[in-house]
Design brief:
By secondary structure, the chain is an all-alpha fold. Helix content is about 55%, strand content about 0%.
Length: about 80
């Protein structure tokens, strides 16, 4: 490693990331055996991540808990006619 790199050893540094992915792990676990390759897993995992980001309000202009805006965003995104 270059001298400019600093190694930080903090016991709980990874907890925030793990908590964020807990929801994804719960969804993937039952279907995880069906993924035969990394390529086959890529698209469903990206969809799970995107849906989780929308649900958590991480999309600009859509608040957390605003279900109507979330549904409207997905309808506009995929051009779904209701």
């Amino acid at each position: 490693m270059p001298d400019a790199c600093e190694v930080r050893q903090v016991k709980y540094l990874n907890n925030i990331v793990e908590q964020d992915h807990r929801f994804i792990k719960r969804l993937v676990r039952p279907t995880g055996l069906g993924f035969k390759s990394l390529y086959a897993a890529w698209r469903p995992l990206k969809g799970f991540e995107a849906t989780n980001m929308i649900r958590k309000g991480q999309i600009e202009g859509i608040e957390k808990g605003d279900i109507k805006s979330q549904v409207q965003f997905i309808e506009d995104l995929f051009q779904i006619a209701t």
